[in-house]
Amino acid sequence: MKVTKTFQFTLVLKKVHEHTLDLEDSLYEAGCDDALINFRNRAVYLDFDREAKTLEEAVISAIKDVQSSSIDAEVASVAPENWVTESEIAQRLTMTKQTVSLWISGQRRKSFPHPIMHLAKKSPLWSWSEVVNWLFENKIIDDKELVENALFFANINAALEERDGKARALRHRLLKKISCQAVHRTNK
Predict the structure, then answer these.
(1) CATH code for 5-79?
(2) How far apart (Å, rounded) are the C-alpha atoms in residues 183 and 19?
(3) What is the value of pTM for the model shown?
């Protein structure tokens, strides 16, 4: 029998706000008694400490609990997010920002993942799942579960986005076009 662990994560909700009638009671009755309800910038989010055998089991059961509540809430995303700044990388790893800067610049270790977003801004963004995978492959961390969890968070958020039928249809159409271009190039 696999032992349960306590997993910490955050669900960001949509279709509700801090003045939604019976918000707290409805979420509690739906099984979210292990979550703290928070409000920021008009958003509602739940910080969970959920016991389960795996992170996936914990997050999915929490999503199902929220969506079974009587308030018509939907889960927009799960945190921690996959996009991270240099400072967030240091914070998540409990390392200095200087250490992370040395990795990024190539002064200490080579081939650190390239940033993916906000390249022209002061704080570009990296994929957390790529960063922890690089750290694991370079034997800077030895926690394989950290790598698996980062990949899970990236993919659960992609799966949540896929629930929107219009967005899913557009993505799949674009993916087909991209794939056809790659196949066409290899046939030349």
Answers:
(1) 3.30.70
(2) 52
(3) 0.83
